Each structure stands twice: as structure tokens, then as C-alpha cells.
Amino acid sequence: MKEADQIGIVPDEKKCAQCGALLPTGALARLCPACLLKQGVAADTATQPATPPFEPPPVAEVARLFPQLEILALIGQGGMGAVYQARQPALDRLVALKILPAQPAVGPNFAERFNREARALARLSHPNIVGVHEFGQANGRFYFIMEFVDGANLRQLEQAARLSPREALQIIPQICDALQYAHDEGVVHRDIKPENVLVDRKGRVKIADFGLAKMLGCEAQNLRLTGEGQVMGTPHYMAPEQVERPLQVDHRADIYALGVVFYEMLTGELPLGKFPPPSGKAPVDARLDEVVLHALEKEPEQRYQHASEVKTDVERIVQTPSSAPPMSAAPLGAVQPGREAMREPRLSRLAVIGAIWAPFFLSLTLFFYAKAVPAAEYHGPAWWQLVLGVVLSAIGLTAPFGTTILGWLAVAQIRRSAGRLYGLGLALFDGLLYPLLALDGLIGWCWSFVLHRLLELNPPADGVPTVNNEALMLATILTSLAVDAAIVWWAWRMVRKPVDSRPTAVPQRPPPATTASGTNPVLGMVALMVTIAGLVAPLLVGLIFPPAWSYVAWALLGFQLLGLGLGALAWRSRAGKCAAITAGINVTIWLLFLFFINSGLAIGGTSAKQAVVVISLTTADPVISKDLTVTASNTWSASCTATQTFRLFEVSNPGVERCVVTYRLKLKTENLAGRAYLEMWCRLPGRGEFFSRSLGNVATGSNDWASYETPFFLKKGEKPDLIRLNLVVEGRGQIEIKDVQLLVAPLR
């Protein structure tokens, strides 16, 4: 830097702005050398509230304590002690001597903080950090000898009105270099402010006073030195978490303080209350607004995560001239349009769309599986049903692919948004839902394959190898839960990692849970887990164990209502919003599904109340199968030892068309190791035979009398000449049959 470009050079004839003394040639910032030396610890640093007043010892007393030094003058004092200018005759150099109040005036914690500061500074060797030459104790007074900086601090330059925006843009990158180096070494300054940023006569920046540094990774007792309610730092430059959670402060507090210093350098004012962006207070490049406001975000995870990122953005702005003129200054307290949109994070739209899309496939599967109508019996809906079916089917069938793709796109978008977007949990849910369901289906198939092979290798005594459905369901659920939990845990850890993969010694601490109303993230995560588990688990149970579909539907609704309630309680947390939105969507779809079923608007549907019994068969009517016997209670009974089909009745020329034919009977089972279901065949002249099976409503185990039915849909012109009614039993056990009926209801 040329001599004419040095920061703060003023004409020779002026006087010192502080003491009025005549200024020598090349004076810096209208200050004489004596005033320039007063860049020591500022008095506005907040430490323990009960610290007694400290009177720095006179120069003569300090000279007796440090005979190896030539003490020249007291140049500063503050909450951490006093700083003297001294000369080291042995090395013929100027140094700064910093001493602490004598014990016991300051207490043991003060001395511990001093030792911690000295160790921290001794580890740092950087051109933009004040170096430490020596530290120790002399006659009960702790001290360290550090590099002497011949210059002024930023506060003095600001007060002298000699700091332009151009010079601020030269200083900020040097501060960033120093902070990034310290953070990489595991050191957090925690008291960045203009008084601690020194500028020498050549324009080089030096950061001083690491007395409040928090050593990350040091022993636990050092981390407890700042007790409950003991706030370390300077109030106007402290990050919110420094006041609220002083024990959980990390390097991002320095980035917040850097944002305050940057704002003050550009505007001459502190960013207090509802403040305008820098371009609204001073004629500076409007692109700097984003940099400053990003550094001043209230939540640590929404700020810059590294000081080097601030330097990169500032240098890019400096190297790329802005085509827009600087914005005019706005009145104090005014907020420019769009600032709230720029500062307030929003929920990822891709994640929301994926969550809305996801339930369509599950609802489509639930609907058709519950109806259990084979494709062969679907003979043409009305035009509006066709349009609705095509639209909903297209949305539902593409949901697994669309939801998964949108979920992972949202994950990438949120991770790169630097806190501008949230909803990472919802995005991960979208990305993993269908892959995990597919994996669960594969696990179920594998268990079924294994159990069948085991039965083939060790057949039972009666020679009928039948898989126990309860054992299969339990094994599948337990394995799926374990595998899914491991995958979700691993994926959550991966997506939570910072996008910047450069190694650093500073750990990233997640924000702790709060207890304010509606802001508890723990409750929000519980709500999200209940919502997801309440959606996946009941559907998985229903797919594996079809007789439980009626319970599944109500269990799904109950879980979603619980998730909706918990999400509403934690609405102000991100996970709470995700849970409430997802549960609300699922409840809405469930209610619409219930409405369609009850109103008979389902494809090919009809109202059960309009069904008319056209044929009713009892034990007085002979059955075709010879394996059925009539009991004393007028029922048919059979003992099954293998899979077999019982042919019950054949109805010739029933005279029905354009209707829903329903085959119904009452069935009782005892120790049925397998399942039993109804089967109805309809023969259409010239077209062949088609069947319908009640696979969504089967009997298994031991059950008292219950009604089972299966429908068959006939359109106009389809008039069967033969209907065959069968009962299929897969497995072994005892069955009883009664009240066989054939019902007919007109199609809507």
C-alpha cells in the first residue's frame, strides 16, 4: 500500500483529536503516538457481574515486578486487566505487557481464564493475530508479554471518521483470515469488536485480546468456567446464543460479531432493533446487504458457517463491479421491501409437493386392495368415473417416483440454501418413504421364502406345509423396523453434515431444545416420527395381514390425528410444521376415501342398501361337493387337511345384467392354519368365464360366525348363463358354512 493510501493519514498541521497535542509528520487517524497506543482491553467487556473495581498498579511497581523489561507507560485497562507499553532490552524491541489484578481480588476463575487465554494465544501463529512471546506469574500477578502493534484500533478510526467503505472492504477479509485460522485451531474469540481489531501504520490488521476465548475440545472443567448466568463478551457485539446459552457457544458467535463490526464500519451505527440494511443507511453496494444480514442471522445454523465464506463473498463483490447504483439512505428504522423475504427462512416447496404427492399411491393401493375386485370383473365405468380414475391413477402410479425424486432434490436444495430453506426432515421422509417400503416388501418376501423352504425341509406330521401368517408378519415387521431405523439414522446424519467438506477442528453443535411454547424441536421430532410411523406401520401390517384392514384404517387415522395434534403444539418448530402438514394431508385423504366408499362413488360402486337377495340357500339344498357334511345345527362342515376348493352351488340363467352380483355366506373356522375365501365364477356366453375372489376379506385361525362376500360387476349386455359359488380353503383346519346368498344391486 502506498504512503498516500494509508488508512487515516491527515495533514501535519492538525492537532490530536483526543489530547490536543501537535501531530508529527505522518500521524495516523489524527492521534498522537501516546493516544494511538491506547488500544488495550476495552472497558465494556461483560464478565462476572460481581468483579470488584480494578486499579492498575503504577509503572514503578510494574517495573519492580518485571526487571527484565523497561516499562514505558500504561496504555489501556479494562475487564481483563491492564496493558503497558514496554521495551525488551535484551532483544531491543517494543512489547505489550498485559497483567491481571492480583489474587484474591479477582477470584480463581479470573486466573483460570487468563491461563486459558495464554494457552490459546500461544497456539496461534498468524500474521493477522497479535502474537504471544511469554506468559506466567510474577509475585501473584499473572501476565503475558505480547507483540506490540504500532497503530490504532477500529474504534479510534471510526471516531476519527477516517474509515471509508473501501477501506472496510480491505479490512474485513483480513479479519476473516485470522478468525478462520483460529477456528481451525479450535479457538473461539467470543469478543470480536472494534477495540480488539488493530490496524498498524501499513494497513495490516491484527486481532487482539483472546482473553475470552473458549477452547473447544479442552477438558470439561475448562468448559465450566463460565458459570450459569456469567456472560462473557461485549453486549452489542454478542450473538444471541452467547446471552441465552453461554455454555454452548461455538465459532459462529464470532461470525455474528463480525457481522456487527462490518455493519458498523459501513454505516457508523450498530444494528440494533429493527435496523435497515447497510445500503439503506449509507451509499454502499447493495450486494453487501446480503453478506451482512446473512452474518447477523439470529439462529447459528442460518449464518455463514465459516469465516472464509464471508471473505469469499466480500472479495467477489469487490472484484465484480455492480451495475446498479447504490441505494439511497432510508429513514432510521425503515425496512426496505423484500428484506423480510430475504431474511425469513421458508419451508421447501419441493418437500411439501412431495409430501402431498406421496399418499396418492398408498390411497390408491388401499382402495383397490380393500375392494378386491379383479381386473376381469371391471367392465366399464361411467365417463366421469373413467376421467377421475385415469387422473387419480396417473397421479398415484407416478407418486413413488415423483415423491422420491422431489425428496432428494429438496434435500440438496435445503443443504445448499445456507439456512434460507428448512424442512430437511420432510424432504428426507419424501426421499426414503417408497424406497423403504419397497425394501420392506423385499424383506417380507425373503422371510416368506425362508419359512417355506424350512417347512419343505422339515414337513409337519400331516404332510401339509403351511406358513404361520402371524410368525411371518412378526418377523417381517421387526426386521423392517430395524433396517429402516438404521437407514434413516444413517441418512439423517449424512444430510445434516455441512455442505462445505473442508476439514475443521471446530465441531458443529446443533441448537439445543427450547421450552418456549410452540418452539420445542424435540416435541416436533416426536410428532414427525409418530406421523411417519403411523402411516407406514399400519399399511405394512395391512399388506402382510389382510384381515386386519378394518383395524388398519382406524389405526392410520388415529396416528395421523395424534401427529397432527403434536405438530400443532410444536408448530413454531420446523419438525412440528412438517408433522402437522403431513398428518393434515393424510387425514384429508383418509376422509375423502371414506366419503367415496360410503357414498358409493367408487369406480363401479353401488350402495349396499339397494342390494336385493335373489337366491338364499340352506342345508335343505344339496351342495355339489361331497366333502361337506350337514351338522345337527343345520350347517355344512368339513375338516381340511390340504388346500382344496369346495364347490357349493351352481345357479343357471340367473337373469341378471348391468348390476353388481354379490356372493355372501357365513363362515366359522377352528384352528385354520391358512386362509379361507370366497370364489365366484360367472360364465358369459361367447366370452368365457371370469371370477371374483374375496382376497381382501379372508378367514384364518379360529373365528366365530362372520359374514364374507365378494362382488362381480356386470354392465349392460353382459348376462351370465351360469354362476358358480365356491369356497377355497388353503391349509388345514375345521370349517362350518351357513346362509349362502346371492344378492343383486343396480349399478349407478
Plain-language structure description:
This protein has 748 residues and is an alpha+beta fold. It has 3 domains: 37-223 and 233-319, Transferase(Phosphotransferase) domain 1 (Transferase(Phosphotransferase), domain 1); 346-503 and 519-599, no CATH class; 608-746, Galactose-binding domain-like (Jelly Rolls, Sandwich), CATH 2.60.120.260. Helices cover 39% and strands 20% of the residues. It has 18 helices and 20 strands. It has helices at residues 33-36, 59-65, 108-123, 154-159, 165-184, 220-223, 240-244, 252-267, 287-295, 307-319, 339-343, 349-371, 383-415, 424-457, 469-496, 521-544, 549-569, 574-599, and strands spanning 70-78, 81-88, 93-99, 132-138, 141-147, 151-153, 187-188, 197-200, 205-207, 214-215, 346-347, 421-422, 612-617, 629-630, 636-640, 644-652, 659-684, 688-693, 699-714, 722-746. The strands form 5 sheets. Strands 13, 14, 15, 16, 17, 18, 19 and 20 form an 8-stranded antiparallel β-sheet that branches. A hairpin with a 2-residue loop joins strand 1 and strand 2. Helix 14 runs parallel beside helix 16 (521-544) and helix 16 (521-544) packs parallel to helix 18 (574-599). The longest helix has 34 residues, at 424-457. It is elongated and about 125 Å long. The model is unreliable at 1-13, 37-50, 212-231, 324-343, 370-380, 500-518 and 599-609 (pLDDT under 50).
